[in-house]
């Protein structure tokens, strides 16, 4: 069974930094795109950033220049380095990955979510 396990959320002051991690485990044949979404209270879940297996990344305009996504394919792990955090970055952050397990069709998998709170 494939699982995504996130870590690294927490409380940080405006202007601070946090690093999120998400590790995929289980019987995995291939991982394609990996990314991060977020959902603030009362709002819809939105795409923050996505990275291909080859390392090409795209970002939401709201986080460009402040957030950096990276991945370690050997560890099946994706990271999100968040700098210059703002109160409006407060949300639950979800890891997402397009995974093909062994002998099973490819589909999207989601992490359980990790809370990021930016407040003084």
Strand content: over 45%
Average pLDDT number? 97
Number of helices: 0
Major sheet: 7 strands, mixed
N-to-C order of helices and strands: EEEEEEEEEEE
Q: How much helix is in the residues?
A: under 10%
Principal-axis shape? elongated
| Low-confidence runs of at least 5 consecutive residues | none
**End-to-end distance, in Å?**
40 Å
Please state the CA-atom Rg, rounded to the nearest Å. Answer: 14 Å
| Total beta-strand segments | 11
Task: Give the secondary structure arrangement, pairings included.
Blueprint (H helix, E strand, L loop, with lengths): L2 E5 L2 E3 L5 E8 L2 E12 L6 E6 L5 E3 L7 E6 L4 E6 L8 E11 L5 E4 L3 E5 L2
Parallel strand pairs: 2-11
Antiparallel strand pairs: 1-3, 3-8, 4-5, 4-9, 5-6, 7-8, 9-10, 9-11
């Amino acid at each position: 069974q494939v699982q995504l396990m996130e870590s690294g959320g927490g409380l940080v002051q405006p202007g601070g930094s946090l690093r999120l991690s998400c590790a995929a485990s289980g019987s995995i044949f291939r991982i394609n795109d990996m990314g991060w979404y977020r959902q603030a209270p009362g709002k819809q879940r939105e795409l923050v950033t996505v990275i291909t297996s080859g390392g090409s990344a795209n970002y939401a305009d709201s986080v460009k220049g402040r957030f950096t996504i990276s991945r370690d394919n050997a560890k099946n792990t994706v990271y999100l380095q968040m700098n210059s955090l703002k109160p409006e970055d407060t949300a639950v952050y979800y890891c997402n990955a397009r995974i093909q397990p062994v002998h099973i069709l490819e589909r999207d998998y989601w992490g359980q979510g990790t809370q990021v709170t930016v407040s003084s």
